[in-house]
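C-alpha coordinates please, single chain.
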Amino acid sequence: MAARSIRTRGERVGRLAVLAFTGLVLVFLVAPVFVVVPLSFTDSEILVFPLPGWSLRWYEDFFTNPLWTGALYNSFAIGLSVTVLATVLGTTAALGLHASRFRLKPVALGLLMAPLAVPVVIVAVAMFYFFARIGLLGTFPGMVLAHTVLALPFVVVTVLATLQGFDPTVVRAAASLGASPLFGFRTVTLPIIAPGVVSGALFAFVTSFDELVVTIFIASPRQRTLPRQIFSGVSENLSPTVTAAAVVLIVVCMSLMIAVELLRRRSARLQGKAQ
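Here you go.
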Protein backbone atom coordinates (compact mmCIF):
# COMPACT_ATOMS: atom_id res chain seq x y z
CA MET A 1 0.00 0.00 0.00
CA ALA A 2 2.83 2.36 0.93
CA ALA A 3 4.76 1.44 -2.21
CA ARG A 4 1.69 2.13 -4.29
CA SER A 5 1.26 5.51 -2.56
CA ILE A 6 4.91 6.42 -3.23
CA ARG A 7 4.60 5.33 -6.85
CA THR A 8 1.43 7.36 -7.28
CA ARG A 9 3.06 10.43 -5.74
CA GLY A 10 6.05 9.99 -8.03
CA GLU A 11 3.78 9.71 -11.04
CA ARG A 12 2.04 12.93 -10.03
CA VAL A 13 5.34 14.75 -9.68
CA GLY A 14 6.51 13.42 -13.04
CA ARG A 15 3.25 14.45 -14.70
CA LEU A 16 3.46 17.95 -13.24
CA ALA A 17 7.08 18.23 -14.36
CA VAL A 18 6.14 17.21 -17.90
CA LEU A 19 3.24 19.69 -17.94
CA ALA A 20 5.48 22.48 -16.64
CA PHE A 21 8.17 21.75 -19.22
CA THR A 22 5.58 21.61 -22.01
CA GLY A 23 4.14 24.93 -20.85
CA LEU A 24 7.58 26.55 -20.87
CA VAL A 25 8.26 25.26 -24.39
CA LEU A 26 4.92 26.59 -25.62
CA VAL A 27 5.57 29.98 -24.02
CA PHE A 28 9.04 30.07 -25.60
CA LEU A 29 7.57 29.30 -29.04
CA VAL A 30 4.48 31.48 -28.86
CA ALA A 31 5.71 34.50 -26.88
CA PRO A 32 7.59 36.13 -29.79
CA VAL A 33 4.38 36.03 -31.85
CA PHE A 34 2.41 37.94 -29.26
CA VAL A 35 5.08 40.60 -28.77
CA VAL A 36 3.60 42.38 -31.78
CA VAL A 37 0.24 42.82 -30.02
CA PRO A 38 1.31 45.62 -27.62
CA LEU A 39 3.55 47.10 -30.31
CA SER A 40 0.54 47.54 -32.57
CA PHE A 41 -0.98 49.96 -30.03
CA THR A 42 2.00 52.28 -29.79
CA ASP A 43 1.63 55.96 -30.61
CA SER A 44 5.25 56.19 -31.73
CA GLU A 45 6.44 55.94 -35.32
CA ILE A 46 9.24 53.58 -34.27
CA LEU A 47 8.97 50.22 -32.56
CA VAL A 48 10.39 50.52 -29.05
CA PHE A 49 9.81 49.07 -25.60
CA PRO A 50 8.49 50.31 -23.25
CA LEU A 51 5.72 51.95 -25.23
CA PRO A 52 5.79 55.76 -25.01
CA GLY A 53 1.99 55.83 -25.29
CA TRP A 54 -1.08 53.98 -26.51
CA SER A 55 -2.95 54.68 -29.73
CA LEU A 56 -5.13 53.08 -32.42
CA ARG A 57 -3.60 55.16 -35.21
CA TRP A 58 -1.89 52.20 -36.84
CA TYR A 59 -5.11 50.19 -36.99
CA GLU A 60 -6.77 53.24 -38.54
CA ASP A 61 -3.96 53.38 -41.10
CA PHE A 62 -4.33 49.67 -41.80
CA PHE A 63 -8.07 49.87 -42.48
CA THR A 64 -7.86 53.10 -44.51
CA ASN A 65 -4.63 52.67 -46.50
CA PRO A 66 -5.40 51.24 -49.99
CA LEU A 67 -2.22 49.17 -49.92
CA TRP A 68 -3.31 47.28 -46.82
CA THR A 69 -7.03 47.08 -47.58
CA GLY A 70 -6.26 45.86 -51.10
CA ALA A 71 -3.94 43.18 -49.72
CA LEU A 72 -6.58 42.12 -47.21
CA TYR A 73 -9.21 41.94 -49.94
CA ASN A 74 -6.92 39.85 -52.15
CA SER A 75 -6.19 37.45 -49.30
CA PHE A 76 -9.88 36.92 -48.60
CA ALA A 77 -10.79 36.60 -52.29
CA ILE A 78 -8.05 34.06 -52.96
CA GLY A 79 -8.64 32.26 -49.66
CA LEU A 80 -12.38 31.81 -50.23
CA SER A 81 -11.82 30.60 -53.79
CA VAL A 82 -9.19 28.13 -52.59
CA THR A 83 -11.49 26.96 -49.80
CA VAL A 84 -14.29 26.08 -52.21
CA LEU A 85 -12.02 24.38 -54.75
CA ALA A 86 -9.87 22.50 -52.22
CA THR A 87 -12.91 21.35 -50.23
CA VAL A 88 -14.69 19.95 -53.28
CA LEU A 89 -11.58 18.25 -54.68
CA GLY A 90 -10.29 17.07 -51.29
CA THR A 91 -13.63 15.64 -50.16
CA THR A 92 -14.09 13.84 -53.48
CA ALA A 93 -10.56 12.44 -53.30
CA ALA A 94 -11.01 11.31 -49.69
CA LEU A 95 -14.29 9.55 -50.50
CA GLY A 96 -12.69 7.83 -53.48
CA LEU A 97 -9.64 6.72 -51.53
CA HIS A 98 -11.74 5.49 -48.61
CA ALA A 99 -14.03 3.40 -50.80
CA SER A 100 -11.39 2.01 -53.16
CA ARG A 101 -9.12 -1.00 -52.63
CA PHE A 102 -6.73 -0.78 -55.61
CA ARG A 103 -3.02 -1.55 -55.27
CA LEU A 104 -1.75 1.93 -56.04
CA LYS A 105 -3.87 3.54 -53.33
CA PRO A 106 -0.80 4.33 -51.12
CA VAL A 107 0.89 5.90 -54.14
CA ALA A 108 -2.14 8.07 -54.90
CA LEU A 109 -2.36 9.13 -51.26
CA GLY A 110 1.37 9.88 -51.22
CA LEU A 111 1.06 12.11 -54.28
CA LEU A 112 -1.78 14.04 -52.63
CA MET A 113 0.30 14.44 -49.47
CA ALA A 114 3.47 15.45 -51.36
CA PRO A 115 3.04 19.22 -50.81
CA LEU A 116 3.28 18.57 -47.06
CA ALA A 117 6.54 16.65 -47.38
CA VAL A 118 8.33 18.67 -50.06
CA PRO A 119 9.88 21.97 -48.89
CA VAL A 120 7.62 24.85 -49.88
CA VAL A 121 10.46 26.60 -51.71
CA ILE A 122 10.83 23.60 -54.03
CA VAL A 123 7.08 23.62 -54.63
CA ALA A 124 7.18 27.35 -55.36
CA VAL A 125 10.03 27.04 -57.87
CA ALA A 126 8.31 24.13 -59.65
CA MET A 127 5.05 26.06 -59.84
CA PHE A 128 6.87 29.12 -61.15
CA TYR A 129 8.33 27.27 -64.15
CA PHE A 130 5.17 25.26 -64.81
CA PHE A 131 2.80 28.24 -64.61
CA ALA A 132 5.16 30.30 -66.78
CA ARG A 133 4.85 27.68 -69.52
CA ILE A 134 1.03 27.53 -69.45
CA GLY A 135 0.47 31.27 -69.02
CA LEU A 136 -0.89 31.29 -65.45
CA LEU A 137 1.98 33.21 -63.88
CA GLY A 138 0.81 36.44 -62.26
CA THR A 139 -2.90 35.65 -62.71
CA PHE A 140 -5.72 35.19 -60.21
CA PRO A 141 -6.53 31.62 -61.38
CA GLY A 142 -2.84 30.78 -61.06
CA MET A 143 -2.78 32.01 -57.46
CA VAL A 144 -5.91 30.03 -56.63
CA LEU A 145 -4.55 26.83 -58.21
CA ALA A 146 -1.16 27.20 -56.49
CA HIS A 147 -2.74 27.71 -53.07
CA THR A 148 -5.16 24.85 -53.73
CA VAL A 149 -2.25 22.47 -54.26
CA LEU A 150 -0.95 23.43 -50.80
CA ALA A 151 -4.36 23.31 -49.11
CA LEU A 152 -5.63 20.07 -50.68
CA PRO A 153 -3.70 17.66 -48.40
CA PHE A 154 -5.25 19.19 -45.27
CA VAL A 155 -8.76 18.59 -46.61
CA VAL A 156 -7.95 15.02 -47.67
CA VAL A 157 -6.41 14.13 -44.30
CA THR A 158 -9.23 15.70 -42.29
CA VAL A 159 -12.03 14.07 -44.29
CA LEU A 160 -10.25 10.69 -44.32
CA ALA A 161 -9.96 10.86 -40.52
CA THR A 162 -13.70 11.51 -40.28
CA LEU A 163 -14.47 8.64 -42.66
CA GLN A 164 -12.67 6.17 -40.37
CA GLY A 165 -15.77 6.08 -38.16
CA PHE A 166 -18.22 6.13 -41.07
CA ASP A 167 -20.52 3.11 -41.50
CA PRO A 168 -21.01 2.42 -45.23
CA THR A 169 -24.11 0.32 -44.55
CA VAL A 170 -26.18 3.48 -44.13
CA VAL A 171 -25.39 4.41 -47.75
CA ARG A 172 -26.39 0.96 -48.95
CA ALA A 173 -29.59 1.24 -46.91
CA ALA A 174 -30.40 4.55 -48.58
CA ALA A 175 -29.71 3.02 -52.01
CA SER A 176 -31.99 0.08 -51.21
CA LEU A 177 -34.77 2.57 -50.49
CA GLY A 178 -34.39 4.09 -53.95
CA ALA A 179 -32.01 7.00 -53.23
CA SER A 180 -29.72 7.95 -56.11
CA PRO A 181 -25.96 8.19 -55.38
CA LEU A 182 -26.09 12.00 -55.41
CA PHE A 183 -29.19 12.16 -53.21
CA GLY A 184 -27.71 9.59 -50.82
CA PHE A 185 -24.49 11.57 -50.55
CA ARG A 186 -26.33 14.84 -49.93
CA THR A 187 -28.77 13.48 -47.34
CA VAL A 188 -26.80 10.68 -45.67
CA THR A 189 -23.04 10.84 -46.19
CA LEU A 190 -22.46 14.59 -46.15
CA PRO A 191 -24.33 15.30 -42.87
CA ILE A 192 -22.31 12.59 -41.12
CA ILE A 193 -18.90 13.75 -42.37
CA ALA A 194 -19.81 17.47 -42.26
CA PRO A 195 -17.54 18.26 -39.24
CA GLY A 196 -14.53 16.86 -41.10
CA VAL A 197 -15.44 18.68 -44.31
CA VAL A 198 -15.89 21.99 -42.51
CA SER A 199 -12.64 21.49 -40.58
CA GLY A 200 -10.82 20.76 -43.83
CA ALA A 201 -12.32 23.87 -45.41
CA LEU A 202 -11.11 26.00 -42.50
CA PHE A 203 -7.64 24.48 -42.76
CA ALA A 204 -7.65 25.23 -46.49
CA PHE A 205 -8.58 28.86 -45.89
CA VAL A 206 -5.91 29.32 -43.22
CA THR A 207 -3.29 27.71 -45.47
CA SER A 208 -4.11 30.12 -48.29
CA PHE A 209 -4.59 33.17 -46.08
CA ASP A 210 -1.20 32.67 -44.41
CA GLU A 211 0.81 31.63 -47.49
CA LEU A 212 3.83 33.74 -48.45
CA VAL A 213 6.59 31.78 -50.23
CA VAL A 214 4.52 30.50 -53.16
CA THR A 215 2.86 33.91 -53.47
CA ILE A 216 6.23 35.62 -53.88
CA PHE A 217 7.07 33.32 -56.80
CA ILE A 218 3.64 33.18 -58.48
CA ALA A 219 1.98 36.55 -57.91
CA SER A 220 2.46 39.66 -60.02
CA PRO A 221 3.56 42.94 -58.36
CA ARG A 222 -0.07 44.04 -58.18
CA GLN A 223 -1.26 40.81 -56.55
CA ARG A 224 -0.31 41.66 -52.99
CA THR A 225 -1.80 39.42 -50.33
CA LEU A 226 -1.66 40.35 -46.65
CA PRO A 227 1.40 38.16 -45.82
CA ARG A 228 3.24 39.51 -48.85
CA GLN A 229 2.41 43.11 -47.91
CA ILE A 230 3.65 42.45 -44.38
CA PHE A 231 6.87 40.99 -45.79
CA SER A 232 7.32 44.03 -48.03
CA GLY A 233 6.60 46.37 -45.13
CA VAL A 234 9.22 44.70 -42.95
CA SER A 235 11.90 44.60 -45.65
CA GLU A 236 11.29 48.00 -47.25
CA ASN A 237 9.87 50.41 -44.69
CA LEU A 238 9.31 49.18 -41.16
CA SER A 239 6.16 50.92 -39.97
CA PRO A 240 4.04 50.11 -36.90
CA THR A 241 1.21 49.48 -39.37
CA VAL A 242 2.97 46.17 -40.04
CA THR A 243 2.32 45.13 -36.45
CA ALA A 244 -1.36 46.00 -36.76
CA ALA A 245 -1.56 43.89 -39.93
CA ALA A 246 0.23 41.05 -38.16
CA VAL A 247 -2.28 41.18 -35.29
CA VAL A 248 -5.16 41.00 -37.79
CA LEU A 249 -3.52 37.98 -39.42
CA ILE A 250 -2.99 36.30 -36.04
CA VAL A 251 -6.58 36.94 -34.93
CA VAL A 252 -8.05 35.52 -38.15
CA CYS A 253 -5.87 32.39 -38.07
CA MET A 254 -6.37 31.75 -34.34
CA SER A 255 -10.14 32.21 -34.62
CA LEU A 256 -10.32 29.64 -37.40
CA MET A 257 -8.08 27.21 -35.51
CA ILE A 258 -10.33 27.49 -32.45
CA ALA A 259 -13.31 26.78 -34.71
CA VAL A 260 -11.51 23.69 -36.05
CA GLU A 261 -10.87 22.45 -32.50
CA LEU A 262 -14.51 22.97 -31.52
CA LEU A 263 -15.63 21.04 -34.59
CA ARG A 264 -13.19 18.25 -33.75
CA ARG A 265 -14.58 17.94 -30.23
CA ARG A 266 -18.15 17.98 -31.54
CA SER A 267 -17.30 15.25 -34.03
CA ALA A 268 -15.68 13.17 -31.28
CA ARG A 269 -18.77 13.55 -29.07
CA LEU A 270 -21.06 12.51 -31.92
CA GLN A 271 -18.95 9.45 -32.68
CA GLY A 272 -18.91 8.56 -29.00
CA LYS A 273 -22.71 8.74 -28.83
CA ALA A 274 -23.02 6.68 -32.00
CA GLN A 275 -20.82 3.94 -30.51
